[in-house]
Amino acid sequence: TTKRTIPYGLSCIAGNLIKEGFTVEIFDSLANSKSKIINFPEEMDYLKKYYETADISPFSLFNNFKHFGYSFETIGKKARESDAFLIGISSLFTPYAGIALKTAETIKSHHPDCKIVMGGHHPTSMPETVMRCKYIDFVLRGEGEISIPLLAKSIKKNLPLDNIPGIVFRKQDETLHISEPTWIKDIEKLALPASHLIKTSFYRRNKKQAVTVVASRGCPIKCSYCSVSGASSHGTYRKRSVESVISEITAEAKSNEVGFIDFEDENLTLDKKWFLSLMEEIINLFKLKQEKPELRAMNGLFPNSLDMETIKIMKKAGFKILNLSLGSISLNQLSKFNRPDIRKAFEGAVESAKSNDMEVVGYIIIGAPFQDPFDSLQDILYLFKNKILIGASVFYPSPGSLDFELCKHENLLPKSLSLMRSSSFPLSHTTSRKQVNTLMRLSRILNFIKFLNDKKIEIPIPKPIPDNIEISLKDRIEIGKFLLSGFLYDREIRGVTPDGRVFKHLASKELLIFC
What we know:
This protein is of the alpha/beta class. The protein has 17 helices and 17 strands. Among the domains are: about 1-35 and about 70-180, Rossmann fold (3-Layer(aba) Sandwich); about 265-285 and about 290-360. The protein has a five-stranded mixed beta sheet with strand order 3-4-5-6-7, with helices on both faces. Strands 8-11-12 form a three-stranded parallel beta sheet, with helices on one face. Strands 13-14-15 form a three-stranded parallel beta sheet. The radius of gyration is 24 Å and the shape is globular. The model has no long low-confidence stretch (mean pLDDT about 95).
C-alpha cells in the first residue's frame, strides 16, 4: 500500500551522501498512482483458479496482475537525464528481484556510462544471483549509509574497492569478490534522512504529510520465519537515542504539517524506559497542535512489551490502533516458529487497548511449513471471538530466515523467486493452497461481520442463494451482507463479478464445516 512504500531507506543513504559532498537525486518509481494490467507470469498460472474471476465483494483477495508506478522507459529516460555517474537500485524483496534487474538493464540501455550498484535485503542475501546480471556493477550487502559514499569516492578517484564494507564486485578474472554484510554499530552518528528528496505530495494523507521513522534496527527475538530476527543473518538489535529520533521528527514537522507517523521498527516497544521517554517527547513536540499526528507501528508490536502504562501513553501520544503480533495460539506451532506463548500478554494488551478506545489488529501466520490448517482455523476463530481484527498473513520463505533454510532442506522452496510472496500462496505443504485460499477469505468474512457489529448494522438472516443468480446491488456493504446471508446458510464462499454475476470461490469444505 502507498503508506508503506515511502523510500525511507534511500533518503537515509542520500542524507549520508550529501554529508560527504555528493549531489543526490531520488527517483521514486512507485510515486505514481497509475497501474497497468499485465499478463500473469507463466510461473503463476496455477493461481488463476483462485484469482481469475474479478470479485467486487468485501471477500475478494486479488484479481489481476499489475505493473505499478512509472514505466521502465520513463525510468530509463530519467536515468539518462540525470547524467549520474553512479545509480543505486533498491531491491528489498526477493519476489520483485526480477523487476529490479530489468530496471538495471533499462538504465544501462539509456545511460551506458553509469555504474550501477544494487542494495537491499535481496542482494544482501543472494549476491551471487544478482551478480549474474551483467548490468549490475556492484552489490552492497547490509546497511549502505557508510558504504555507498565510500563506493562513490572510490569510483571518482579510481581507488581500490576491496576495503569497502559489504561490497561485491567482479574481479579481473570474472570471479566475484564477496564481502560479508555490514551492520553499522553506531547508528547515532548517521546523517538524518534527506526527506526533501522524496516526492512527499504523493504520500499525503488527508492533506497532511505522512512520515516514516525507524528508531531502532533489528530484533533480538528469534522467530523462525523472520529475516531480521535474532536468529537470522541480519545485524543485531540497535536503537537510536530518543534525542536523535525527535530531531528527525522535528525536522519533518518544521517543513510539513505532519498528520501520520509510521514507525517501521521491528520491535519498537522492546525497551520500555526508552519507549516511554520517546512517547513523552512526541507528546511535548506536538502539544500546541490542535490536531496531533496519528502514530502507527505497522510492523507489529510484541505483546509482552506492553502494559497499561505503556498503552495509555501511546494513546496520549497519538496511537489509535495497536498492531499486535500473535503468530499462533497453537503451542506446537509456536515451537516451530521459535516463539513463546504470549496469549496472556496478548489478551492483557487487547484489554488495555480497548479500555483506552483503541482498535486492535492481531497478526497470525498461515500456510507455513508443517503448519496444521486446523490450527490456523483456530487462530482465526480465536481473534474473531475476542473481537479483534484478523490480520492473516500467508507465509513466504524469506532469504536469511531459519524457515527459508528449512524450506530449502525440505525441497519446499518455490521454483521461481517471483513466487516468494504471500499473494502467490508459495507453499502447498501440510496446508494446501486451497486451504490457504479458504482461510484468507474466511478472515475477510469474519472481519466483515466485525465491521457490521462495530457499526451496529444488523447481521443478515441465513438464506439460500440460487445458482447462476445475478444481482443489481452496487453498494459494497450491501453486496457483502447478501453474500454473508448465503455463507451463514450453507458455508459457501461466494463473490460477485462487476456485472453482478454471483459465483462460488474455490474453498475447502473440511475447514468450513468447523466454523
